[in-house]
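Subject: DUF1932 domain-containing protein structure
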Amino acid sequence: MRIAFIGFGEAARAFTDTLLAAGQDLSFAAFDVKQEAGMAEAMASRGVTPAASPEAALLDADWIIAAVTADQSLVAAQSVLGGLAQGQVYIDINSVSPGRKQETAALIEGHGARYLDMAVMAPVHPRGHATPVLVAGSCAEALRPELGALGFSFDVTGPNPGDATAIKMVRSLFVKGLEAITVECALAAAASGVYDRVMPSLERSYPQLDWAADVPYRFERALRHGARRAAEMREVGATFDALGLTGGLAREIAEVQERMGALAAADLDLEAPLPEAIAEVARLRGARFRGA
């Protein structure tokens, strides 16, 4: 089997690593708009053939796995249309709204390929392609044997594109929202000089949470993945808008994630005691977005 990746970032690299480690008889090609040296090394070290264009990556591929940022998912699909062949499977793992996946499915299937909506439901490290996923689409049941043979941990949620991603989008409002609330609360506490009062109070109110571990973990995730999560949360907003609910809540979460992702983690002393580290994030965030 030959797999082509459109986008070769964290998810694509994690999938490749674990598929290779499992001893599967596979070959890989990839195209990514980022053509810097680090990308070339990431491909070369894994034996992935770099492609000069999205269409070139598709040559002789059985599966195409689209793994780009949420705001580029439709662009990625449009970029491969000229190279699609009858029977190829386009696996869309991007974190986008059901409406976006339905729109993408119509494009892909209109050019003779099969479309699979795949929602990745946990961090891709350390399990890679064995990370729990949900899949949906008209070909989902037919692909059960291949997905199982390759070691995917999957559940078929329905026959329609969007059935899988709908679950992820709704869940993401809570997961990324809880992260954003934690980050903003801690930042406000540090900026107000009341961190040592607020956090013990929260610990007493919610003793089931490990605050000493939870707060730094959520900060690290927002700093490292904020830009990608902001794009996802805007898709969550579109999902909630389409349901007649409050999409604006997700867009505010996206704003928090984007502001955290905009900070250069290399400029922060993450080894400092937590209140001091959070105070420094608060200072940097305030200076950046006040135009200082």
